[in-house]
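== Fold encoding ==
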Amino acid sequence: MNDLPDFITENIYKREFGFDHYGQGPNDRYKTFLNERNLKKFLRTKTPFAAYISVAFYNEPRHRQDWQKSEFVIDIDAKDMPIRSCGCDNVCEICLNEALELARIYIDTLKGDLGLKNIHLVYSGRGYHIRVLDKFVMGEESEFRGEVLKYITGADVPTNEIPLGYTNLFNNRLVRNIFHITGKEKIEGINTKLLKDIKKNRDKIEKDENGNYQLGIFKGEIGPRRYKNLLDGIARVNLSMADGKVSIDLKRILRLPSSLHSKVSMKCVEVKNLDNFDPFKYAVPKFVEERKDN
């Protein structure tokens, strides 16, 4: 508990906490703490399986009343990504790396396209939480948050009415997914043969002198009608690469950074450097490391 991030400890008394005492999910909610010291005392005394904190700030957090604002969250769970190149049953180093890659892409868009700055990335145990605390989004309702998520993930096929910048964003998301397809995915509107043809022809995708993806040759190889099916299918997949229910939920509770995800024996930790973060190095509790050494 010595590595609680500042964005958690600041105004901690306005947050709701939840705890899992039996290993079956958060059954003890509506808890509040005046400060970090009181929280640590509770955790040492009760030793819960897991600890959670609200994304919302309330004037009366014990009753979840008088809501003030909420973090905007993008939840990327590695095991739930519909396109990932590993094919494992749960999570592994490969899909966790791909989830981190996706988090980096989303963060770049949040900063570059929307001008957001107060962004924190947290490793959750099985994926990543992007937690945004800019005033621009914290006071907004669910509908607005849903539209932001759709933009960030590339959930709409570009049309003539959509600015060119979004077309480039969508193409980047499209190409990323094309190169992660294994051919075994189940994607609405994209049959197995098309998946195999996509995989077979994806090396024909080229970039122009500005680094923008040119899909003309690739489109010619799979055909215009099937290419449209691909666009529609990937747009739906793009949105489901993140958990949309989390992004629009103003009262959601998330795993508390610095606490343990007991099901995977990994710590929920803030990612301070995206370039060198390795969950198997930075999120493994000391007692697990000691047990391995022995």
Q: What stands out?
A: The first helix runs from residue 6 to 9.
